[in-house]
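Changelog note: in this version the structure field was regenerated for every chain. One regenerated record is shown below for reference.
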Amino acid sequence: MYLMGTNWNTGEVIKDFVDWCGINHLHINTSKTKEMVIDFRKKSPPITLVNIQGLDIDTVESYKYLGVHLNNKLDWSVNTDVLYGKGQSRLHLLRRLRSFGVCRTLLKTLYDTVVASAIFYAVVCWGGECTDRDRNRVNKLVRRASSVLGCCLDSVEVVSERRMLAKLTSIMDNTSHPLYETVRYLSSSFSSRLIHPHCKEQHYRRSFIPTAVRLFNDTA
């Protein structure tokens, strides 16, 4: 996966990576390797196929990584479709259990562990960037679960903001985290607030770091 329009040579980067794998005795499974090009330009140039060890790598529009579905537009629509499908099937299970007379306390526990764990999976990544349509679809599942349980449940907005803030706080306390230096660089010498990063594109403005910084400053 790489961004078009960046100022580095993709072919050289891939070659260096393949060479590094060979030096460190790591085998690349080319049959499972995919290429996904992210390009926000209106007119995209032709895509040059990546060749690794004599085999052309397939170009895909979406890719599943650690349970999160990414597409080449970074709009999280594919990921939302998957989460919505999982949420519907697990919500059906919740309804069936209610019909068997399971108590509300146990149903709430099942919602947290079975339903919410599915529909809010990796919400830190997509919570601030998904479209209103996708956000409403997930919130529809939350409302349906709320009617089954007979109590109010947190929406996508509430859950994502809470988890983003918690993640940012944990990064600030963990010097070994890959984003620690990035966040530390945003520290202000005049207050406990963080300096908001400069965002030229809306995609970046809605991503984790800028969104979490705004949430952090609102609570500072």
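Spot check on this record: Residues 77-99 form the longest helix (23 residues). The CA atoms of residues 170 and 192 lie 16 Å apart.
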